[in-house]
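Same chain as my last thread, 165 residues:
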Amino acid sequence: MSDTIHTIAFYPGSFDPLTNGHLNIIQRALRVFDQVVVAMAQNINKRAMFTLEERRALVQECFVDEPRVSVVMFDGLMVEAARLHRATAVLRGLRGVADFETEFQMATMNNVLAPALETVFMMTEKSHFFVSSHLVREVASLGGDISPLVPEPVNRALRARIVRK
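reply #2:
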């Protein structure tokens, strides 16, 4: 029996859509963790552009050649979903100080609910600080070029979705 600890990062979010900032966090997390579980939830406070299943398919397409990335959907408490997937940590990306305050509050609550589950914050690279899914959706809906901000599968899906509207 091996003494090696298998580390699993649980990366929750709505990913509507996945941006290059999210992609970068996942890629860098693979240097730290053995596996990354991208965990999608429906945010009831946001109007989604893509269904959960569409978002799942887009993330899977972006990581088709990376078996250490899996994509799941969940509802309910994030910490329960993380436990279900045997996560050793919750992964959260930070763009700036405003993100930190919100994320710190959530991490503290998660620690109360699941003390053994650590939260790991990873700073977004400076080239992605300004990018948010909301901003990408807005620029795309107004006809702007979002290709530098999202992976190609997401860019194609966004263009197709905007054309249909």
